[in-house]
Amino acid sequence: MMRATFALLVAILLLACERTEEVPWEIRSADPSALESAAVIETTVRRGGCEGVLVYRESIAPDRPGPRPQVGRGLHGFAAEVRDAECRPLVRGCVERDLPLRAGERVELVLERVLPTAACAASACVDGTCTDRDAGAVETGDAGTHDAGMQDAGVPPDGDGGTTTEDAGAEDGGIGVDAGAPPDACDGAEWSGHCYSFRSATHDWSTAEAACVAWRGHLVSIGGPDEEAFVRTLAGGATYWTGLNDLTVEDIFTWVDGSSSSHRHWGPGEPSGNPQAHCVLDDPTTDGWALRRCRELQAHVCER
């Protein structure tokens, strides 16, 4: 397979015994044509793997020298997404490596083609960077307080980071923004003073949350059995991402919108305890919630 290497060789600074070690990070594209319209490269590093805790993020120009984030020892996920000037993702990927590397090794990340769905509304896109939302806080334990304002993809980001289009609506499963709706208007389904939108198009957890933020909400937080029953009806029996996760602290589950709800409806054998799974979905077929890898592609429900 032909691959194009970016004009980017990232030097990671590995913190070890009061000294730093440079960790070469080479980013390539599986599709050379995807780089022709590249406007920005968004990079992240997560401690614990591709779905771990975000410790570094930065948006950089393709022709600019790579970033020099400071990270610690152990398993880390290195992710990148290339966007065009209209904030549409072209290629993205993530690779996990244990640090420190052996002498002569480097982190090699190959980015794959993705659907070019804009990451934010056109009015919020400036030269490939979305300006309408903060991507979430970078943990300061490894990387200090550096925050370049890029989207947290989970990068996940797994994974997958395309999020919104202005003309895609909830009715057809798209991830949409109704640019003409007043801020307080509900363009979805109302329940108990809240507005909900079911999106049948499947996305990873981080992409789904970014889409909900663009809709002026968050992934749904479920306060009790009645709300859960309403949301399940809205989803029509489909499995969907919720806002519950343990991305910050392992086995400590919190809602992405900061809700204090203690309601839990775990399915059989859940939460699974899988150290690579950090995001919670509701699976009506098993009549319970399940802990899954955040990179899985699922439908989702937004709430505001």
TrEMBL record:
Pfam families: Lectin_C (PF00059). Gene3D superfamilies: Mannose-Binding Protein A, subunit A. Residues 191-303 form the C-type lectin domain. Residues 152-167 have a biased composition (Low complexity). Residues 141-183 are annotated as: Disordered. PANTHER family: MANNOSE, PHOSPHOLIPASE, LECTIN RECEPTOR RELATED (PTHR22803). This is C-type lectin domain-containing protein.
